[in-house]
Amino acid sequence: MTEDTALSASPRPEIGTVTLWELFRALREGWRDFTRAPMYGLFFSAFYVLCGAGLIYWGAGTFTWTLVLALGFPIFAPFAAVGLYEVSRRLEADEPLGWSSVLSVVWAERGRQLPWIGALLVIIFLFWSFFAHMSFAMFLGNMQLINITTSWDMFLTPHGMMLIAFQLLVGGLVALFTYSITVVSMPLLLDREIDFMTAMGFSIRTVLRNRVVMLLWAAIIAVTVLAAMVPMFLGLFLALPVLGHATWHIYRRALFTPL
């Protein structure tokens, strides 16, 4: 979709059924897209790798850098994801690939609905940051201060284990909510002229309609990304492009325009 596209509202899509077979087929197609255009995948995934490395090497212990990188990530991450979706869209439509054409589409998204998704992700991040500090103070505030970078003993206490369980529970719910509002909405915003609230509504309904398959997809994303982060975030160069391309193909199966 280019800047020349008319801004009239697109026809409302209908939500289809995504099967387990289609999920694994989308993964294969995601790998195929990455191998057909690897430089684009490496380019857009580099954003995530550099942010992760920056949080470790520059942000650790430095409030200003941590805040800049952590707040900048949810603002710009959707644009990197859209770049992967656009590559898959062009490959699917047999349209020519070129850096200027792909990047121009990503750049054009700044004036459409995608920045609202980024702003919402910032709000979610700020909520989680506040919640993490609040829960730490609530469970461990009365304990003697210990440098957790050198000793994790406090987390082995009953209060520490309750803190971990509480944060895992709430963190899981926040992650599930974030996934539900973005998994379909971001490719939908690229593909059609639709407002971000409506797009998020379609995304949530798609997850509810295909809850088993979409929850499995969420688990695959979580496990794959965590594993890819272990070797100094370098695994993200492979994992993120494949997952991003596959998400486009899942979106194409989940939503369709009725004839």
Notes on the protein architecture:
The chain is mainly α. The chain contains 10 helices and 2 strands. It has a two-stranded antiparallel ribbon with strand order 1-2. It starts with 13 loop residues before the first strand and ends with a strand.
User: Taking strands numbered 1, 2, ... along the chain, how are they ordered across the largest sheet?
Assistant: 1-2
Number of strands: 2
Q: Structural class, judged by helices and strands? A: mainly alpha
**In percent terms, what proportion of residues is strand?**
under 5%
> Which residue ranges are poorly predicted, with pLDDT under 50 across at least 5 consecutive positions?
1-7
| Count of separate DSSP helical elements | 10
What's the shape?
Answer: globular
Sheet bearing the most strands, described? Answer: 2 strands, antiparallel
Helix content: over 70%
Nearest-angstrom radius of gyration?
20 Å
> Secondary-structure element sequence?
EHHHHHHHHHHE
* Mean pLDDT across every amino acid position: 84
Distance between the termini: 21 Å
